[in-house]
Structure formats: structure tokens, C-alpha cells
Amino acid sequence: DTGVSQDPRHKITKRGQNVTFRCDPISEHNRLYWYRQTLGQGPEFLTYFQNEAQLEKSRLLSDRFSAERPKGSFSTLEIQRTEQGDSAMYLCASSLASGTGKEDTQYFGPGTRLTVL
Amino acid sequence: AQSVAQPEDQVNVAEGNPLTVKCTYSVSGNPYLFWYVQYPNRGLQFLLKYITGDNLVKGSYGFEAEFNKSQTSFHLKKPSALVSDSALYFCAVRDLGGNKLVFGAGTILRVKS
């Protein structure tokens, strides 16, 4: 049973460039989440999918951010026209929903650290 | 809205001594509470969760947490700390309106030999 994987692990880009991150969840997990973590803070929710449907988006997620999960398996998070304030660790998590889904455990990947110069 | 507070930025403990990392929460309704640990430049690892039932929850690596409804607390504990327990610990609560986790700011645990 492999865990959640994320690619790349590190990304350095210049301000104004577009970047895309990939997350591969634990196989058969139907829920996938994206969080952002800045230094000294806990992760903050960005968005989540159940299968291929994007069910919730945070107000933190500006129009420059878009996420997809086209076949209900892997997901991508794209940031357009990056800004220095986008520098953070981007974490992906997955879970297997059961019952109401409130009880399920989210398992996190190693994260993608983005540095915008 | 749900929220979590971790009142200590850092906890220092000697190896072999018991440790406690504090967490208090604010939710409307029944809370779903989680503890995660993060090592440097790594993602979060799940330790344990409280959903319902016994107030003492046992988790990975010898950790346990005590749910106290009257004090709205969910403190993480371990009877005997190891140097390898040194890491960043996060308490989280499930948002009742959806499925996201709301995290505290984290507590650095330093265990000295």
C-alpha cells in the first residue's frame, strides 16, 4: 500500500510564471484534498474533491489557482502568474469516505515546496 | 466556525519523562479531533483521532490523547518521551459544514537526552 505521492517535491520559479503540481492519492481513496502551509503555521485548506467532483473551495483560493481531478484519480493544482506570496508548502491528502465522511482520516503526502523569486 | 488553539509554541521535555502537548477546540456540535506530527521538510503523519466513545484514544508510536468535553480539550500525551519524538505537532478539528480539517498553529516538541 503506497502512500500519497506528490511531484515535484521542490519548485523554484520566477514571479509571473505558471506552475503545476501533481498529487497521486492512495489507490481507492475517493476524496482528495489540497492544503497550503506557510512557515510557522498549520496547513490551511484550499479545496477538495470527491471522485472527480470539486465539492468545496476556500476563499483563499484566488482566481489564479485551479485544481482538477479529471478521472477521479490523480489531481493537479495550477497556479497562474505566481506571486511571491504564493511561496509555501502545498500539501495533498486523501481519504476513503465512509458513513457521513466526518470520521475518515486524511493521509498526507510529502508536499511540494514552492519558492517564488 | 470551528477552531483549534495550541497554547504552547514549544514544549521541552527530558527523554524518559512524560510529555503533554495541549490543544483546545471550539466547535458547535460533536467534535471530530485529530493529531498529526510533522518532521522537517515532510508531510503530516496521522497519529490518532477522536470520533466518539472512550475519552482516552490510543494511537501510533505510543501516543495517546485525552478528550475532555467540559474543558473542550484534546491533549496529546506519551508516558515516556524519546528523542526521536522531537517534531512539530498539530491538532486539528473536522469542519462540520464540510470535510476540511482546521489546524492549530502547531507545537514544537523538543526531547533532550
Produce a short descriptive summary.
Chain A is mostly beta strands and 117 residues long. Chain A has strands at residues 5-7, 10-13, 19-24, 31-37, 44-50, 53-57, 65-68, 75-79, 88-95, 107-108, 112-116. Chain A is 0% helix and 48% strand.
Secondary structure layout plus pairing:
The complex is a heterodimer of chains A (117) and B (113).
Chain A lengths: L4 E3 L2 E4 L5 E6 L6 E7 L6 E7 L2 E5 L7 E4 L6 E5 L8 E8 L11 E2 L3 E5 L1
Parallel strand pairs in A: 2-11
Antiparallel strand pairs in A: 1-3, 3-8, 4-5, 4-9, 5-6, 7-8, 9-10, 9-11
Chain B lengths: L2 E3 L4 E5 L4 E3 L2 E3 L6 E6 L5 E7 L5 E3 L5 E5 L4 E6 L8 E8 L6 E3 L3 E6 L1
Structure description:
The complex is a heterodimer of chains A (117) and B (113). Chain A has 117 residues and is an all-beta fold. Chain A has strands spanning 5-7, 10-13, 19-24, 31-37, 44-50, 53-57, 65-68, 75-79, 88-95, 107-108, 112-116. Chain A has no helices and eleven strands. In chain A, the strands form two sheets. In chain A, strands 2, 4, 5, 6, 9, 10 and 11 form a seven-stranded mixed sheet that branches. In chain A, strands 1-3-8-7 form a four-stranded antiparallel sheet, with no helix packed on it. Chain A is globular. Chain A starts with a strand and ends with a strand. In chain A, 36% of the residues are buried. By secondary structure, chain B is mainly β. In chain B, 0% of the residues lie in helices and 51% in strands. Chain B is built from no helices and twelve strands. In chain B, strands 2, 5, 6, 10, 11 and 12 form a six-stranded mixed sheet that branches.
- By DSSP (H or I, 4+ residues per run), the number of helices of chain B equals 0
- Quaternary structure state of the chains depicted: heterodimer
Terminal CA distance of chain B reads 41 Å
Average pLDDT reading of chain A: 93
Low-confidence stretches of chain B: none
- Assess the beta-strand content of chain B as a share of residues: over 45%
H/E element string of chain B?
Answer: EEEEEEEEEEEE
Largest protein interface, residues of each chain: A-B, 30 and 25 residues
Order of helices and strands of chain A: EEEEEEEEEEE
Overall 3D geometry of chain A? globular
- The share of residues in helices of chain B is under 10%
Category from helices, strands and their pairing of chain B: mainly beta
Number of contiguous helices of chain A: 0
Q: Main sheet of chain B? A: 6 strands, mixed
Structural class of chain A: mainly beta
> Strand count, sense and closure of the main sheet of chain A?
7 strands, mixed
What is the radius of gyration of chain B? 13 Å
Q: What's the mean pLDDT score of chain B?
A: 94
Termini separation of chain A (Å)?
A: 37 Å
Helical content class of chain A:
under 10%
Low-confidence stretches of chain A: none
